[in-house]
Specification:
The chain is of the alpha+beta class. Helices cover 30% and strands 29% of the residues. The protein has helices spanning 24-30, 67-77, 94-101, 120-126, 145-155, 159-162, 166-172, 213-227, 241-249, and strands at residues 2-3, 36-40, 48-53, 57-62, 88-90, 108-118, 139-142, 175-180, 183-189, 193-194, 197-199, 201-204, 231-233, 235-237, 252-263. Helix 5 packs across helix 7 (166-172). It is globular and about 60 Å long.
């Protein structure tokens, strides 16, 4: 396989038509919003693509029959120097799954990932802005550089990979935060933004769950997306019951389950 230059990233978009919102990280890389690389098959005609993001989420799309390309992808996956101690390779057809299963990807296990589409009407029918009000002793904070820095450096260092700086996160991402006594306890943020979508991640410290914090932040996040003409996007592990239930609560509809090769130690 060969890596293509950034000014050629757009040429692979037709291969992602069937994936659409299932790989927002890939769309972000193609649009140069977030960092990553794009690899295609050898030859003049581009039939297969392998997209990597700086956060470790990767995807395959296009023709599954190029065995040389697939072997190169597996070689990339098995080279530990290509990863920051984490990767998640998404495939979206049975043929891709069959091809990858013929190889061993070191340090990985195959999981199931569930994907959703957003239904704005359902959300609007269920929520109003008052649902997002945060009451004492909790305090709400919008996304700005200071809290983005705290979030990236202390609460969730993964965001140092997906957003290269707090400033870039504030410029191109979405984030809503709840603190108590100067400590972050619940967050709703976008690890990836691309293709007109903003991926949602909600994290609440265990002892503060089931107090409506995730719901309040989710409402704020989704309204923020709508105000920016972005489509909120949701995907999660299929066996994560709470996360899947929350998706339905916000008006998301399941569109499918696909395998993902997830890093494990």
């Amino acid at each position: 396989m060969r890596e293509i230059a950034m000014d050629q990233y757009h040429t692979v978009l037709p291969l992602l038509d069937s994936i659409q919102n299932k790989a927002v990280y890939a769309l972000s890389v193609i649009q140069h919003i977030q960092q990553g690389s794009v690899f295609v098959n050898e030859g003049k005609s581009i039939n297969s693509v392998f997209i990597t993001s700086s956060g470790g989420f990767y995807c395959l799309a296009g023709d599954e029959e190029d065995d040389l390309f697939i072997a190169d992808v597996v070689g990339f996956m098995n080279n530990e120097s290509n990863h920051h101690n984490f990767f998640a390779l998404g495939v979206f057809t049975a043929d891709w799954e069959k091809k990858i299963d013929a190889y061993l990807i070191k340090h990985s296990r195959k999981i199931s990932r569930t994907y959703y589409s957003f239904h704005q009407e359902r959300f609007v029918e269920s929520y109003v802005m008052s649902d997002s009000m945060v009451q004492k002793p909790f305090k709400y904070y919008p996304l700005e550089v200071d809290i983005a820095t705290t979030y990236r450096e202390k609460f969730y260092p993964y965001y140092q990979l997906v957003w290269p700086s707090a400033e870039r996160f504030c410029t191109s991402g979405i984030g809503h935060f709840i603190m108590m006594e100067d400590e972050l306890i619940s967050v709703c943020t976008s690890p990836y933004v691309g293709g007109g979508y903003a991926e949602i991640v909600i994290i609440t410290i265990d002892e503060f769950r089931r107090q409506g914090l995730a719901c309040a932040l989710g409402v704020l996040f989704i309204n923020d997306c709508l105000a920016q003409n972005l489509i909120p996007n949701w995907s999660c592990h299929t066996d994560n019951v709470a996360c899947n239930e929350l998706a339905h609560k916000f008006g998301f509809e399941k569109i499918g389950e696909h395998p993902m090769y997830w890093y494990t130690t």
